[in-house]
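Structure ticket #2291
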Amino acid sequence: MHTSTLPDVPLPDGYRFRALAEADLRAVRDLDLWAFPSATALDEAVQHSFPLGWDRAIGIEAEGFDGLAALHGSYPFRRFGVPGGTLPTGGLTWVGVHPQHRRRGLLTGMIDLHLARCRERGEPLSALFAAEAPIYGRFGYGKAADDVRLTIARGAGLHEVPGADEHTVRIAHASREQHGDLVGRLHRAAGERPTGVAGINRPGWCERETEELQAHFWADLPAFRGGRESRRIVVVERGGEPRGYALFRRKLDWETFGPRGTTAVSEAVALDAAAARALWGVLVDFDLTVETSTFLLPVDDAVTRLLMNPRAAQPRVVDNVWVRLVDVAGALAGRQYAADVDVRIAVTDARLPENAGTYRLRARVFGEATCDRVAEPADLSLDVRELGAAYLGGTSLAALAAAGLVTEHTPGALATAAAAFGWPVAPMSSWVW
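Resolution: structure written out below.
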């Protein structure tokens, strides 16, 4: 792709966008190390797998400056989970600005270009993980999901689940060759049926859809291990059928009074309660360890209910996916709703004025939805940021209204819409992009 094909988005004087290619890898890695400081040397960083597709990587050059002043990219999530289905979504990532070029409007230009390209590609949503939470709200992104992180003492009590003892356990070195298909299949199933019930998916769930993402995910470089062992996997099976897995690393520390090892779980997936009980029974009881820590888990993950003393696991809730509606009508019509709804919503959008207006949303519970612009009085009004926060069903419109961020104009409309926008399971992505 050539620079001439990029949408016409302004930048400050002296700067210009440029489509990047594989020959720019060293410059990209150098800027990344400037934007996100690391102990990794540049010569080592260029040897690491690169998760972006070059057709979606865009840099900014500055007059008289050797190297890139800024860059951003996005992942082509064709099956990003929304309530009741999936929608094409631009997964914004690798947003970085060189320290010498901060506070000059480059981030604004990159966001505007990204949103314009999402519209060109027919992606009604953009989503991201925010390195700094205050940044992206001003660009219309709303915090749409949280995750929970636990520190579980070895041998923590777990409730019994019928059928758990019918599972067999395999523990091995994890590799793409041996486990790539299994992990991909179970991960997809966990997004489609997190409770095992058809029609209830997990919004925010996204797969590692491209070859670049798969290669990056399975790369197991020592620089990323944090002093821990190489990646390992636990697989639980029932009747020869894999029903869950967890990727983990251990670290063994010795103190005067004995071993103080720890286990770090990077991803854990189970397709039903019995599989979850079998899986976590292994993860919280490795020899020579004192605790197991988790990374991204849904706030309603099975283990939070299996623990007899969840308080002792020191739960920490952290913001997960942020969502921005790029095409309001397309996004609202592209998901399902948990209650019948017929509501007119007035939306403001400073960055995409073409989004601003009043929309009539009509849907039957867990059925198809329609959304059209109307020239009628609104029942509710809000900014696109709040619409993004509520979109995946993890943030209540009523809670936003209580904070003064949603206004009800028609009595009763808020309660109906809040119930409809909710979803039976919490939204979340199991990995950071």
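Closing remark: The radius of gyration is 23 Å.
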